[in-house]
Design a protein that fits this description.
Chain lengths: ~775, ~280, ~180
Amino acid sequence: MLRVPPVGAGFQRTMARMSQPSTTHVGASMPRVDGVAKVTGRARYVDDLDAPGAWHGITVRSTIAHGRLEAIETLDGFAATGAVLVTAADIAAHGGSNEIALIEHDQPALVAVGAPVMHVDEALALVAAPTRAAALAAAKLVVARVVPLPAVLSMADALTANEKLYGDDNIFKKFLIRKGHSDDATFDAVMASAAHIIEGEYDTSPQEQMYIEPQGMLAEWRDGKCFIIGSLQCPYYVHKAIKTLLQCGDDEVVISQAVTGGGFGGKEEYPSMLAAHAALLARKATHPVKMIYDRAEDIAATTKRHPAQIRSRLGVSAEGDIVAIDVDVVMDGGAYLTLSPVVLSRGVLHAAGPYKCATVRVAGRVVATNYPPHGAFRGFGAPQTTFAYERQIQKLARYLGEDGLTTRKRLALRSGDTTSTGQVLTFSVGTDAVLNAIANVAGAAPVRSGVSAKGSTVRRGRGVCFYFHGAGFTGSGEARLAGRAEIALLRDGTFEVRASSTDIGQGAITMFTQICAASLEVDPALVRVIDPSTANVPDSGPTVASRTCMVVGSVVETASRKLKARILEWGASHGMANQTVALCGAAMARAHYGADHAGADIAELVQYQPPPGIAWDDATYSGSAYPVYGWAACLVDVSVDLDTYEVSIDRCVQAIDVGKAINPIIVKGQIEGGTLQSLGWAVLENVIYKDGKVANANMTNCIVPTFADAPDLETILVEVPYPYGPSGAKGVGEIPMDGPAVAVANAVEDALGCSFDSLPISPEAVFASRSRWSFS
Amino acid sequence: MSEPLYARPTSVAEALELRAAHPDWMLLAGGTDLLVDSNHRKVPVGMLDLWRLAALGGIRQRDAAIEIGAGTTWLEIERHPLVRVGFLPLAEAAREIGARQIQARGTIGGNIGTSSPVGDSLPVLLALDAEIEVASVRGSRRVPYRDYCVGYRKTALAADELIIAVHLPTPVASTRMVWRKVGTRKAQSISKVMGAATMVLDGGTVVSARIGMGAVADRPIRLTAVEQAVVGLSLLQAAEAARAAVPAAIAPISDIRSTSDYRRAVAANLVARFFAV
Amino acid sequence: MKIEMNVNGAARVVEASPYRRLLDVLREDLRLTGTKEGCGEGECGACTVSLDGETVNSCLVAVAQCHGRTVKTVEGLAAQQGDKEILHAVQTALVRCGGAQCGICTPGIAMCAADIVERELLHDQDLQQARVMVRELLAGNICRCTGYQLIVDAVIEAASEVGLQRRERASRRTP
């Protein structure tokens, strides 16, 4: 029985202080430190914060996909509302720069008069008023005159480049990976030598993150400084964007994270836009301004997973080995570059799959269209290419008449093998462990034909897949980021973890608490992870890319160990040899922090050091793409209702090599959440665009799985330690999103005897496939 | 913005007086439809709140029928023994309307009042040959549901009338009743196709049948041509006859939730399955 | 208009337009911000409260409809014993089982789970049936973090815990 501590007023991340040490070691499932605040409703999300005198901000948006903004006008009665209006002109008037800084600065905060409107629901102007109703009413009195231009609403149209949205060719970024050959002629010769070629074309659909807390931000100006708090993943991304927007110094902007109701990538880049808007309105209104999107606006205006079209060829030898892999990936980036190059990068780096092959060519392009920018979503390009390569491997297995697990086991990468970028895998390769784990629990395949509970005939099938996911930033990204974290010994003898990694539900603060306490060898009750704010935490890098535990956790571990050594050394020289860290620390703190202490804290600030032997060449796209990979296998059983064409997921088992589960229940929760997002993407989620606008911008029609749609999920944690991760841990956040969708596709193929190469595998798609069914 | 007026009558007579005096007010019960996204909707001039008006509640046996008060919630319908024993498809439909929170507030009168083509109880009312009791200060009358919904979200309810109750005639003993909803997902979903049927059987032969369907036309409809086509057939023959006759009997549309082709095919499959389980 | 309602055991009076959503009045006027808005259309269940003992979406309730009625929010779920807060069995189980991640859906889920547990809706079900029932009963609450598995675990655990306590109390009364 969990002992529940009394909790003081407000949201305090102090539950760890009350926890029992026996359940808090690394590897134990310590209850979340923010758990009680969340189950009692005390956790304060941005819309819950007290903000006396705050006004409400509303965005005036484009209704057309492509055009030129001629004018922004207010109708009669606007002045009488008392609302303030902000346009792009207000940015320049204060010496700011109208751009949302990310990779390229091509996206404006607000479209300027005379500038192009690039997508439906693009922000054209902002309105704030003392109440939300008044702001909504005032916004209706703002009219934007836009002259329409031809819109580019397909990847094919983008590539013809008749209408130029970006450069001469509408290509935001392209990559080419070559392994085992130097030119196309050589590659073609190898492919031509194959005994058989498996070919396929794959389409994956856009996907809405559907965090349950819509985006929200609160901005306030005090003494010429801008303070922003909101629902966000990456405080320093927002910090950089607002500094650029306002053209001001580091200390003139403070970005803090409120408790955040889910992100999944959706709160990686978009919060910079929302923060910019709130900051501009607050400055003009001379009041704090709160901007809370409602669900319709959130779905319509914020980022989605990139749709992708992938063509793939596997050249197969007479013995059934893969002699050549050829993949061409095209992704739809939407109207601005945003994060598309890195999404594409992760996509192409995973596109050849975790399989042995000496000759690989992967080409990737991400194109500009007039859709709202597609962006970060858990998996970040890899789920799209995983869908393609695992469909290809399944087709290979079918061609060979081989069991799917056998084919994968035969061809999978292991220690000593090289990836498509020539990276030699030397440690933490969980291939056999995950494949064996699935084989061990698989049991008999479901009986093919049957009758459902509702009396319909059903066909059943089983699908498997095997996949990997690179943890941390791509290539030399982590070295460039140089993420930092700090551990401090406070006056009262407790310890503080200072990192900009945010807890967006994934358990970061609990995990940091456990790593820090274990490394210091103190009770977790003495450790507190402070709320991230650019005013008081160093830049640990963004909360993305399955890097928080593995990368920032390792920095926390190193800093904690250094602090422990320093404390014990102090103890030894002050007659406290052989005393505990907690006791020495308390004494050291008393000695250091006098009544009027004004000097530095007792703290260790550590910067991330990439593991040795990580070499990456951006020019040739070769080398160590990631410091380490997670490995996973998935088994899915489905039944297809032949009256309604609905696919039910009857069983889903995932075995994932996480290196080390710092907190197994939290890891399990992460995996299962990602798994259901993938299963939802497979059969029922979709974003439907009409003339560039999201046509299903509400939760009634942009559906995600309910409790009743989810099967009981079976999760197997496999631990093949990563020598450079905290206690052996490596990334886990994204990998569960990669595989289950394609396992479903493989299972539906098994049930109906025909291939399913597009997502979603909706009832309508199954209905349309009837002529291809082949079973007796 | 002026505040809407609000009245909560305590008797049917008072409700009818208010309705007669304020035909432009919002008729509100559980709010599960009318209050969706209400912060972005036009504020009504007034609200006539019928929620928990005692006289509109309750489920009673009335001779050879049961009477369900218009204000009865789906949760109450689903749990009620009279419904569960005699009109199982209605209980099943109630259980598939939204989820628990919606079932606790949504009322059968609200479903009838809106008469959306995707109203989940409406095909059941058609198949059970329900009569809707409506009243005004002028008096009361009964309208069979098949005559009640006259177009896309258009009903026979006059501006001064309220829905009082639903009357379901008790079917003869040999009646088989079936219901199936195909939604966008397994729960808390909008229907893509749904239908209900009652059939009187003599041994294995269909003596008569009533089939109601939703989401396959601009309103909930009876499939009378199909009903006629199956009379006198064995269940297996009826299934095939129905499968053949359904597509011509319906007029589904394509929208963001599905396609007309899918709806047509699934409607045929469902009705066929009603006969050949 | 003046609206009087019992909220979490206390009589409250608010002056509000009758058309305002119960959700907004709870959050803005009474500052009970534990009840969350996820969609405003009765889809996600984050705004679930108990109205006269039934769990409902507070975004679909006009506040005038609550006049003279009883509302319970997540803030009223735990019991208070002097200074000490005694969490409801479902709150304890959600923390222990990892059923709360980002936490935004958690108040709504806690309200519905408490309803299941208090009404003993899982009574006499075998484990598999109970899991299926929980999934149906909670289908009006969308969670995007957990995949639902650990929430189902938590509700089952809370139901067993409460059932066990009731049986113990009953057996003490009739030795």
